[in-house]
């Protein structure tokens, strides 16, 4: 907060306190004949005989108001509330948050510390850990992958056996802890403009058994080998090290229709999985990983109901 805004806040706070104190003093003071005239009214009458008298507040009530003002002054001395003045207690909301977080982390460490360093496929054998991982998933992962973990356009389905970056326990954990950055460059110009895009798209469709024009697919094969095979492989089966998807199966992150494939070739794709290690920590990342592992390796391979 700048000095100007700080002074503005202080001015408003002091003005309100002084104003309340003056109003209390002025309205409770009796003067001359007014103090002795207990029959003075405000002039308000209801139902013909209900008259509102103008009498000062009881002394005990006035004392309570003064105590409230004194308390507010003491509060503003002890806690921050006067612009940039930090208060004599040194309290801040950040310290309060850090203390609460440390307390919560200590409880969680006590409850789940036994899973530190344990592979996620072993953690998946503990029902309590998987249930906790499911709740973490709903809080941190469902926004992209869906509450049922089946993903959406541009967000992978976590309940099947297809893994862009590899599906081993260590690879799944690395995706959660460190995140992933996928990049499909725009190749429209590199493969010959719209004609080249059409030919390569037809060839890519043919790799997975989708019906495509044979002549276009054959023409696109050479262009694919010269440009696309560097990431997706000569056989189109992809490369988990690069996050390059397998083009020979029936799983498509952005869609298998001709328009979607052409768009990806022409303009490229960019997918980003944020690193959750700094957010939820390494052990809780293992719990999430264990839950995700059960989705594609459980007995029924179906996600449980969202908590």
UniProtKB/TrEMBL annotation:
<dbReference type="InterPro" id="IPR004678">
    <property type="entry name" value="Cyt_c_oxidase_cbb3_su3"/>
</dbReference>
<keyword id="KW-1133">Transmembrane helix</keyword>
<dbReference type="Pfam" id="PF14715">
    <property type="entry name" value="FixP_N"/>
</dbReference>
<feature type="domain" description="Cytochrome c">
    <location>
        <begin position="128"/>
        <end position="208"/>
    </location>
</feature>
<protein>
    <recommendedName>
        <fullName>Cbb3-type cytochrome c oxidase subunit</fullName>
    </recommendedName>
</protein>
<feature type="domain" description="Cytochrome c">
    <location>
        <begin position="215"/>
        <end position="296"/>
    </location>
</feature>
<dbReference type="InterPro" id="IPR032858">
    <property type="entry name" value="CcoP_N"/>
</dbReference>
<keyword id="KW-0249">Electron transport</keyword>
<keyword id="KW-0472">Membrane</keyword>
<dbReference type="Pfam" id="PF13442">
    <property type="entry name" value="Cytochrome_CBB3"/>
</dbReference>
<comment type="function">
    <text>C-type cytochrome. Part of the cbb3-type cytochrome c oxidase complex.</text>
</comment>
<dbReference type="InterPro" id="IPR050597">
    <property type="entry name" value="Cytochrome_c_Oxidase_Subunit"/>
</dbReference>
<keyword id="KW-0677">Repeat</keyword>
<keyword id="KW-0375">Hydrogen ion transport</keyword>
<dbReference type="InterPro" id="IPR038414">
    <property type="entry name" value="CcoP_N_sf"/>
</dbReference>
<keyword id="KW-1003">Cell membrane</keyword>
<comment type="similarity">
    <text>Belongs to the CcoP / FixP family.</text>
</comment>
<comment type="pathway">
    <text>Energy metabolism; oxidative phosphorylation.</text>
</comment>
<keyword id="KW-0812">Transmembrane</keyword>
<keyword id="KW-0560">Oxidoreductase</keyword>
<comment type="subunit">
    <text>Component of the cbb3-type cytochrome c oxidase.</text>
</comment>
<dbReference type="InterPro" id="IPR009056">
    <property type="entry name" value="Cyt_c-like_dom"/>
</dbReference>
<keyword id="KW-0406">Ion transport</keyword>
<keyword id="KW-0679">Respiratory chain</keyword>
<keyword id="KW-0997">Cell inner membrane</keyword>
<keyword id="KW-0479">Metal-binding</keyword>
<feature type="transmembrane region" description="Helical">
    <location>
        <begin position="6"/>
        <end position="26"/>
    </location>
</feature>
<keyword id="KW-0813">Transport</keyword>
<keyword id="KW-0349">Heme</keyword>
<feature type="transmembrane region" description="Helical">
    <location>
        <begin position="60"/>
        <end position="79"/>
    </location>
</feature>
<dbReference type="InterPro" id="IPR036909">
    <property type="entry name" value="Cyt_c-like_dom_sf"/>
</dbReference>
<keyword id="KW-0408">Iron</keyword>
């Amino acid at each position: 907060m700048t000095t100007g805004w700080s002074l503005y806040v202080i001015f408003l706070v002091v003005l309100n306190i002084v104003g309340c104190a003056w109003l209390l003093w002025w309205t409770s003071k009796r003067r001359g004949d007014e103090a002795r005239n207990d029959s003075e009214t405000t002039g308000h009458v209801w139902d013909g005989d209900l008259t509102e008298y103008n009498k000062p507040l009881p002394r005990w009530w006035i004392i309570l108001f003064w105590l409230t003002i004194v308390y507010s002054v003491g509060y503003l001395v002890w806690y921050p509330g006067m612009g940039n003045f930090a208060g004599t207690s040194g309290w801040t909301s950040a310290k309060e948050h850090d203390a609460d977080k440390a307390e919560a982390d200590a409880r969680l460490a006590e409850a789940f510390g036994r899973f530190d360093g344990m592979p996620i496929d072993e953690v998946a054998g503990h029902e309590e850990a998987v249930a906790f991982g499911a709740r973490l998933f709903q809080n941190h992962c469902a926004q992209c992958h869906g509450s049922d973990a089946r993903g959406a356009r541009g967000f992978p389905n976590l309940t099947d056996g297809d893994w862009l970056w590899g599906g081993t326990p260590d690879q799944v954990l690395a995706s959660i802890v460190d995140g992933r950055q996928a990049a499909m460059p725009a190749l429209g110009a590199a493969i010959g403009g719209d004609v080249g895009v059409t030919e390569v798209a037809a060839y890519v469709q043919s790799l997975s058994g989708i019906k495509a024009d044979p002549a276009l697919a054959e023409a696109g094969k050479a262009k694919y080998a010269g440009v696309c095979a560097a990431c997706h492989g000569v056989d189109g089966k992809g490369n988990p090290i690069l996050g390059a998807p397998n083009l020979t199966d029936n799983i498509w992150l952005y869609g298998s229709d001709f328009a979607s494939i052409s768009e990806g070739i022409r303009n490229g794709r960019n997918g980003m999985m944020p690193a959750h290690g700094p957010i939820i920590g390494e052990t809780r990342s293992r719990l999430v990983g264990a839950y995700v592992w059960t989705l594609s390796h459980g007995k029924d391979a179906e996600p449980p109901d969202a908590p």
